[in-house]
Design a protein that fits this description.
With 722 residues, the protein is α+β, with helices and mostly antiparallel strands. It has 6 domains: 59 residues, Helix hairpin bin (Helix Hairpins, Orthogonal Bundle); 235 residues, D-amino Acid Aminotransferase, Chain A, domain 1 (2-Layer Sandwich), CATH 3.30.470; 97 residues, Nucleic acid-binding proteins (OB fold (Dihydrolipoamide Acetyltransferase, E2P)); 74 residues, DNA polymerase, domain 1 (Orthogonal Bundle), CATH 1.10.150; 111 residues, 5' to 3' exonuclease, C-terminal subdomain (DNA polymerase, domain 1, Orthogonal Bundle); 71 residues, BRCT domain (Rossmann fold, 3-Layer(aba) Sandwich), CATH 3.40.50. The chain contains 24 helices and 21 strands. Strands 12, 13, 14, 15, 16, 17 and 18 form a 7-stranded antiparallel beta sheet that branches. A hairpin with a 4-residue loop joins strand 12 and strand 13. Helix 12 packs across helix 13 and helix 16 packs across helix 17.
């Protein structure tokens, strides 16, 4: 076929556009167009090259991968929830876990344990029906994951049909194998070598490379990456043999054709388990794949069932986490970000450093007092710690390398966004911009509203929100639903396709349930679990608005502290106006499957209290997250103020059940073990506390926090003074 000049010209234009957007996305981290627009450019180029093969060039984007892009991932509801694991950070916490399960069932004291290396990858569920591979799903939120069947099918070690051993009787009608998709270190290095040769951006670490490779819309991209898989558990099992032990289930999986990690070991007693963990902690880098701990499971399946689970994790398993890795790097500057509630948070701008599994360029410094206590200054060489996926932290300076005459850093007196004074209230550790019209606060409230865990408006990230706010198109979250096509197209670098895609995403978000809207509004103390509980109890916005605080507090998992915060938020005229704007925009503001009956006393009094600002501001003094890009603790989640810190709770607390207090600590990135150790950050003391815990804290010099100050500890991550 003879090529036409217009086809050749269009192909060159497409290659130039794709190269430009590749650079923005991969090198500058400032994408201008959503993925769908980018994919459309690649598809058009591929179609031209298929019609005119003589136009294909060696450096064409289409030559990097093969096959047509797949559709977006569909949601998959797991047959059995994929729960997370509680963590143990040392021998004391491992023994505390063993003690807890021993108190539940004394047979656990003599149990055998299966120890498995904790692979640093992506949790995966593989379903087989009548022996044939039918579906693969990511963990997602534990209940619903992403359907990545086509991508996982490209992983060579994943069997497409089970080799069922005849001596185990009839094959099950359904077998779910759970495991970890990962990229080996050697495959990761080879991938980066190829990226360098192609002049492309290299990847940060094997775990992120595996996750990114697996979540490709084009399964051919996944196939081009050398992914692998270890199986570690049987999930759902319908039909087939009765299994008595976890180790027996692993052997069955191996015989069926699944790869099972050869380092898995059955041990007896916590001392043997700890020795195994300590050995692999020393040898963690000897393997061709990354591990970040050891998973310890009770071997006896009947005992597992008797031990049961909490709301988020099985009691019969624990993850022994290796200590977080630390690295030194240069502190280039200390800057201040303004969050959605006005909190001014100092953060460290670092010379990028690879630590804890990823490249870190920003780290939280929490507040003015922490900067002073850590004694860090711009120009310092500092120790940076990153534990798992939590916000990186500056530990302190390397004083021997401090530049001469480096002056101490001073907290700014005015807001870097609006120029209004920054205020630190007496007795507070945090500083606030009290200007409710501050552009930074407005931006962060809207960014949170549109984030994935809230209304999930694709294409409405921070840079786009800033553009829309500066153009006068957005002033509060509800304004998202007033955006017009002609207004968007008038903006710089907002193409027709981009505008249409954004408007479709906005329209689609109107169908989000009430629980997601409550997350999006950013009510202080109220996380996703609490929003679901409230929305089930009061399944329409009108029922929730009419509910007295006593009825809110009576909802399981809410309690008086959260109830007061919700009532205060809903009583604010500014917040009610935003809710009414959402109603007028056509949002459903209902929760499917919620209770059809009102709770007693839900009519009449209305929510009490007086709010202190616009929608998303919550109660006065609410805390924000740290560096830019981290949001206010993630999509609908609290800020990770207790990241890597162990907080023990003892006694009865005013406003919290024991479970609520522990959940609040966990939600902020902390741990809440049952015993005090040298690693304990603080002991929270309620009424009628455990004498042994108090005595141990005194012996070790562990700070003791009065139970009435738990909120301060949760919000600041620091031991309250006074």
């Amino acid at each position: 076929m003879t090529w036409r000049p217009d086809a050749a010209q269009r192909a060159e234009e497409l290659r130039a556009q794709i190269a430009y957007n590749d650079r923005l996305y991969h090198e500058l981290d400032t994408p201008e167009i959503p993925d769908a627009d980018y994919d459309a450019l690649v598809r058009e180029l591929r179609e031209i090259e298929e019609r005119h093969p003589e136009l294909v060039t060696a450096d064409s984007p289409t030559q990097r991968v093969g096959g047509a892009p797949s559709v977006l991932f569909a949601p998959v509801r797991h047959l059995v929830p994929m729960m997370s694991l509680d963590n143990a950070m040392d021998l004391d916490e491992l023994q505390a876990w063993a003690g807890r399960i021993g108190r539940i069932d004394p047979q656990a004291l003599e149990a055998d344990f299966v120890c498995e290396l904790k692979i640093d990858g992506l949790a995966m569920s593989l379903t087989y029906e009548a022996g044939r591979f039918t579906r693969a799903a990511t963990r997602g939120d534990g209940v619903t994951g992403e359907d990545v069947t086509a991508n996982v099918a490209t992983i060579g070690v994943v069997p497409h049909r089970l080799s069922w051993p005849e001596d185990r009787g009839p094959a099950p009608s359904v077998l779910e194998a759970r495991g970890e998709v990962y990229m080996s270190v050697s495959a990761f290095e080879e991938l980066n070598r190829r990226q360098l040769e192609a002049g492309q951006k290299t990847f940060a670490n094997p775990r992120n490379s595996a996750a990114g490779s697996l979540r490709q819309k084009d399964a051919a991209v996944t196939a081009s990456r050398e992914l692998a898989f270890w199986t570690y558990q049987v999930g759902a099992l319908e039909g087939g043999p009765e299994l008595a032990r976890h180790s027996e289930a692993l052997e069955l999986l191996r015989r069926c054709g699944f790869p099972v990690n050869p380092e898995i070991t059955v041990l007896h007693g916590i001392d043997e388990v700890f020795a195994f963990c300590s050995d692999w902690q020393r040898r963690r880098h000897d393997l061709d794949y990354e591990i970040d701990g050891v998973v310890v499971k009770v071997d006896d399946l009947a005992l597992q069932r008797r031990l049961g689970a909490t709301s988020h994790a099985p009691r019969w398993a624990v993850a022994f986490k290796f200590p977080p890795e630390e690295r030194t790097t240069k502190l280039e500057d200390i800057m201040v970000s303004i969050g959605r509630t006005g909190r001014a948070t100092p953060f460290a701008v670092l010379e990028p450093v690879f630590v804890g599994g990823s490249t870190v360029g920003l780290a939280t410094l929490h507040n003015e007092d922490q900067v002073r206590l850590k004694n860090v200054r711009p120009g310092d060489t500092v120790v940076v710690r990153k534990a798992g996926d939590v916000i990186p932290e500056v530990v302190g300076p390397v004083l021997s390398e401090r530049p001469k005459r480096a002056p101490p850093w001073k907290f700014p007196s005015v807001c870097p966004s609006c120029g209004e004074p920054l205020v630190r209230l007496p007795g507070e550790s945090d500083t606030f911009c009290t200007n409710l019209n501050c552009p930074a606060q407005r931006v962060q409230r809207i960014v949170h509203f549109a984030s994935r865990g809230a209304m999930d408006v694709e294409g409405l990230g921070e840079k786009r929100v800033v553009q829309l706010v500066e153009a006068g198109l957005l002033s509060d979250p509800a304004d998202v639903y007033s955006l017009q096509r002609h207004e968007l197209q008038a903006l710089e670098r907002m193409a027709e396709i981009s505008a249409d895609n954004l408007l479709r995403a906005v329209e689609g978000s109107k169908q989000r349930p009430l629980s997601r809207v409550l997350v999006a509004l950013g009510i202080r103390h109220l996380g996703p679990t609490g929003t679901r509980a409230l929305a089930r109890a009061f399944p329409s916005i009108d029922e929730l608005l009419e509910a007295p605080v006593e009825a809110l507090a009576a909802v399981e998992g809410i309690g008086p502290v959260i109830a007061d915060s919700v009532a205060e938020f809903l009583a604010s005229p500014a917040n009610r106006e935003v809710i009414e704007k959402l109603r007028r925009a056509g949002l459903t503001l209902r929760e499917p499957g919620g209770s059809a009956r009102r709770r007693a006393g839900a009519r009449g009094t209305g929510a009490r209290g007086a709010g202190a600002g616009g929608a998303g501001a919550g109660a006065a003094g609410a805390r924000d997250a740290a560096p830019p890009g981290a949001g206010d603790g993630g999509a609908g989640e609290p800020a990770q103020t207790l990241a890597g810190k162990s907080v023990v709770v003892t006694g009865t607390l005013d406003g919290y059940t024991r479970e609520e207090a522990e959940e609040a600590i966990l939600a902020r990135g902390g741990r809440s073990p049952g015993s005090v150790s040298a690693k304990t950050f603080a002991l929270v003391l309620g009424t009628e506390p455990g004498a042994a815990k108090v005595r141990k804290a005194e012996e070790l010099g562990i700070p003791v926090v009065d139970g009435t100050r738990l909120d301060d500890l949760l919000e600041t991550g620091e031991v309250p003074r006074g």
